[in-house]
């Protein structure tokens, strides 16, 4: 069982808040992380899952290949990444989708294995480890059950990997996620949907309005997650390519010096921002924004979508 002290979580939150305000980096997000060596546990859970389903691509979009001009997420140096054609899910994996997987395979998530998970407690304006928090009750067993059509959260990178494998899919690389968000490299806009988080009275994504972490006006209609697709789709037909929940990718990234001081292992890159991102503090919604967390960590604002390689016939 993992545990993090309340003061430990507060220290992490304060550290990242100060870093975000000082640097205004798109990579910032307030997130605790708990590192435990669970390679044996993860391997056994993957082996326990049933054989992958035949992958239906009817709810996916086929993207052409090309070359993505981006920046290294650690060094910030410009680079070009070749992209092969692939399919990407139109929407985030939902609570209903993940529940179906769990019932079919008997899979047990990391949060369920540890018995607790990371929750942002609105009443306390802080992150806490909550016993019994899992994908069915992301804010804890005393709170409302997750709604079926909302993105699944409290799933670790390991959990997302297991689901993707079962579906005959995989997680996207960060470059593939950016390729999809940038409409196959055709758009130079800040966000996947355009230039603004809000156009008149219309919100383009689920994000924090007010003053994080103490005041959330919920002007967009949501305090936490929203139904997948609620805020519309991009020109490619993809929903929630920014806001709602952070999304796991395949990419490794080294910890920042601040992270390494208490949480040294390699982390997994996340994309997209979340409902906890206040644009005045954290701007992960940008196409090239990012954050990260350790692969066993489930959180209340992190989910995923899948991709599938295009079969090459000779």
Task: Summarize the structure in words.
This protein has 314 residues and is of the alpha+beta class. The protein has one domain: Alpha-Beta Complex (paralog of FGE (formylglycine-generating enzyme)). It contains seven helices and 15 strands. It has a four-stranded mixed β-sheet with strand order 13-12-11-14, with no helix packed on it. It has a three-stranded antiparallel β-sheet with strand order 1-4-15, with no helix packed on it. A hairpin with a 3-residue loop joins strand 9 and strand 10. It starts with 5 loop residues before the first helix and ends in a 5-residue tail after the last strand.
Summary, kept brief:
With 314 residues, the protein is an alpha+beta fold.
List the helices and strands and how they pair.
Elements: H1 6-23, H2 39-48, E1 60-63, E2 66-71, E3 78-83, E4 86-89, H3 95-105, H4 110-114, E5 116-121, E6 126-131, H5 157-166, H6 174-181, E7 198-199, E8 202-203, E9 210-211, E10 215-216, E11 246-253, H7 257-260, E12 267-271, E13 291-293, E14 302-303, E15 307-309
Parallel strand pairs: 11-14
Antiparallel strand pairs: 1-4, 2-3, 4-15, 5-6, 7-8, 9-10, 11-12, 12-13
Portion of residues in beta strands equals: 15-25%
Instruction: Tally the helices.
Output: 7
Give the domain tally: 1
- The largest beta-sheet arranges its strands as 13-12-11-14
Q: Report low-confidence residues grouped into runs of 5 or more.
A: 3-44
CATH topology: paralog of FGE (formylglycine-generating enzyme)
The class by helix and strand makeup works out as alpha+beta
The CATH class is Alpha Beta
Q: What CATH architecture do you see? A: Alpha-Beta Complex
Helicity level: 10-25%
Give the biggest beta sheet: 4 strands, mixed
What does the overall shape look like?
A: globular
What is the end-to-end distance?
50 Å
**Rg, please?**
18 Å
Task: Let me know the average pLDDT.
Answer: 85
The SSE order reads: HHEEEEHHEEHHEEEEEHEEEE
According to CATH, the homologous superfamily is paralog of FGE (formylglycine-generating enzyme)
Tally of DSSP β-strands: 15
């Amino acid at each position: 069982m993992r545990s993090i002290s309340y003061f430990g979580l507060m220290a992490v939150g304060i550290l990242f808040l100060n870093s975000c305000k000082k640097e205004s980096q798109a990579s910032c997000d307030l997130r605790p992380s708990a590192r435990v060596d669970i390679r044996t546990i993860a391997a056994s859970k993957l082996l326990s899952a049933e054989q992958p389903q035949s992958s239906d691509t009817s709810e996916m979009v086929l993207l052409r290949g090309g070359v993505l001009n981006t920046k290294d997420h650690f060094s910030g140096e410009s680079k070009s990444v070749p992209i092969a054609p692939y399919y990407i899910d139109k929407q985030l994996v939902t609570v209903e989708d993940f529940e179906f997987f769990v019932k079919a395979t008997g899979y047990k998530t990391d949060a369920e294995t540890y018995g607790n998970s990371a929750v942002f407690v609105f009443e306390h304006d802080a992150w806490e480890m909550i016993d019994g928090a899992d994908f069915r009750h992301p804010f804890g067993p005393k709170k409302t059950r997750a709604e079926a059509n909302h993105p699944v959260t409290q799933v670790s990178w390991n959990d997302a990997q297991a689901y993707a494998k079962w579906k005959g899919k995989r997680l996207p690389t960060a470059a593939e996620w950016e390729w999809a968000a940038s409409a196959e490299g055709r758009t130079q806009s800040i966000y996947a949907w355009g230039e603004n988080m809000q156009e008149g009275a219309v919100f383009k994504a689920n994000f924090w309005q007010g003053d994080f972490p103490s005041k959330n006006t919920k002007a967009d209609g949501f305090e936490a997650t929203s139904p997948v697709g609620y805020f519309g789709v991009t020109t490619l037909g993809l929903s929630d390519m920014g806001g709602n929940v952070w999304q796991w990718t395949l990419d490794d990234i080294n910890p920042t010096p601040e992270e390494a001081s208490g949480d040294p292992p390699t982390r997994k890159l996340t994309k997209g921002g979340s409902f906890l991102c206040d644009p005045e503090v954290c701007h992960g919604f940008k196409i090239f924004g990012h954050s990260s967390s350790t692969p066993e960590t489930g959180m209340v604002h992190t989910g995923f979508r899948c991709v599938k390689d295009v079969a090459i016939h000779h």
